[in-house]
Amino acid sequence: MSIVEKIIASVFESDDAFQTTLSKAIKDDLNITVLDFSEQANIPPSTMYKILSGNREPNIKTLRQIIKTVRKLEGSEHGEFIAVIAARPVLDSISETKRKIGGTLLTIREYSATSIEEAIIAAVRAEREGAKALVCAPIVSPTVEKILRIPVATIMPKNSMVEAIELAARKIG
């Protein structure tokens, strides 16, 4: 469920659920301050703080601004996300789903693949879904660079490669 879907669902649940969900969305999911969010949403900071503290219920115009801003920051409005294609254990090690790069908050969307074919299919799907760039393994990057119109960055697992070699050496010795 996207951040926007969680917020909308909480609106219909209760005032407390809305306040909690919106606060968590701003601070944890979008990783920005309430002040920064209010500036982006063009909502006075005092209004945002009153909404989050339960001292004020948002009117429909304010609620629309909140949803529009969350969509923009989440990257779902314009498909602003970076796709990462890797095996599930690698994807599970990614702790951030948002990253501020050059002043823009980008979403990191994961695509699991266990074969070269799955990685190519995932790359095409990511581009169709609006990825702004793609990160993938060196074994598949030359192929996807030829078929995609978005930038492709290659994962270079130097440290993990050295650690794997050391582990293999310990296992045989």
Polypeptide structure, described:
- The protein has 9 helices and 5 strands.
- By secondary structure, it is α/β, with parallel strands linked by helices.
- The chain folds into 2 domains: 3-74, 434 Repressor (Amino-terminal Domain) (Orthogonal Bundle); 81-172, Rossmann fold (3-Layer(aba) Sandwich).
- Strands 2-3-1-4-5 form a 5-stranded mixed β-sheet.
- Strand 2 (98-101) and strand 3 (104-112) form a beta hairpin.
- The longest helix has 15 residues, at 15-29.
- The model has no long low-confidence stretch (mean pLDDT 87).
Question: Main traits of this protein?
Answer:
173 residues; alpha/beta; Rossmann fold; 5-stranded mixed beta sheet; 9 helices
Mean pLDDT over all positions: 87
Tell me the number of structural domains.
2
Largest beta sheet: what is the strand line-up? 2-3-1-4-5
CATH T-level topology of the largest domain = Rossmann fold
Q: What is the helical fraction, as a range of percent?
A: 55-70%
Looking at the overall shape, the CATH architecture of the largest domain is 3-Layer(aba) Sandwich
Terminal residue distance: 48 Å
Q: CATH first level of the largest domain: which class? A: Alpha Beta
The helix/strand order is HHHHHEHEEHEHEH
- Note poorly predicted spans: none
How much of the sequence lies in strands comes to 15-25%
Question: Could you state the CATH homologous superfamily of the largest domain?
Answer: PrpR receptor domain-like
So how many helices? 9
Which class best fits the helix and strand makeup? alpha/beta
Radius of gyration: 20 Å
- The beta-strand count equals 5
* Main sheet properties: 5 strands, mixed
